[in-house]
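By way of example, what follows is a protein record of this kind.
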Amino acid sequence: MTTVTDAGLTFAGKPLDAAADSLGELRRSDDIAHDADALRSRVAEDGYLYLPGLLDRDQVMDARREVLRRLAEGGVVDDVDHDLMAGIVKPDSSINFAPNLARDNAPLDKVLYSGAMMDFYERFLGGPVRHFDYTWFRAKTPGTTTATQPHYDVVYMGRGTKNLWTSWTPLGDVPLESGGLLVLEGSHKIEALRDGYGSTDVDKFCANENEADRIVEEAQAQERELTSEESQLIHWQGRGSFSADAIATRAQLGGRWLTATYEAGDLLVLSIHTMHASSDNQTRSIRLSSDSRYQLASEPADERWIGDNPPLHGIRAKRGLIC
């Protein structure tokens, strides 16, 4: 079996440092999945919970089938010469962030917003839970241009409670070379990072500086001319990243990039102050995953991601400040 350090992982075409002090395996927490106190202690220590097999594999594969069916209809994956469920990407097809694949998707909603997922969060958070209405979805085709840049989630969704949690859910098996999620070890404990980069908000701007007019005009243009939320979110995610380079990020902040050979039914839970990214997809198959968010229902929620027509990063989300 291929190990993390000999998998030849790359980011934007460049090899990740595979030394033992630079790259490693996620710690499993499936042995404590039903012990809320142990889970809270573990996540305080690690900044993440890796829970293999927590979700129903058959339900996850049903959601995968629905997503691949849509991608086949759109001409992205080949269901003529290959089995649909293999997700073989057609030559010259390119896609990365595709939240439209999560819209009106009952099999995916069943995985993310009912059953084992909600049971887990009610146990972990210790009370009634709500989730964001918006679902992020990634469909990463092979190549060196679709790896997710290093970032904290808080810069995109930190206006409500900070007791907010991300579920990264692979839709199918994700071998190492497919470019699964990377978690930067100990990044949630770096106080300077939390107090600096982690205190920013991608939708705030200085209203008294020259940049203000450009920010507002740009957001208005997006809502006028770029009608899909994909365009808005891709643009603003680049702005909110800590860096465009996962290799340089690890060298600067220290710790190891941690990952795993993920399987359908696995769940990776992240705090909103845990640095994460992904590696390149070096296979012929599309890599499918969703990002969904959960919090206690009694705590305030970031309004950008709530409702049938949430603001996202459009003009309704912008806040001008006197700097």
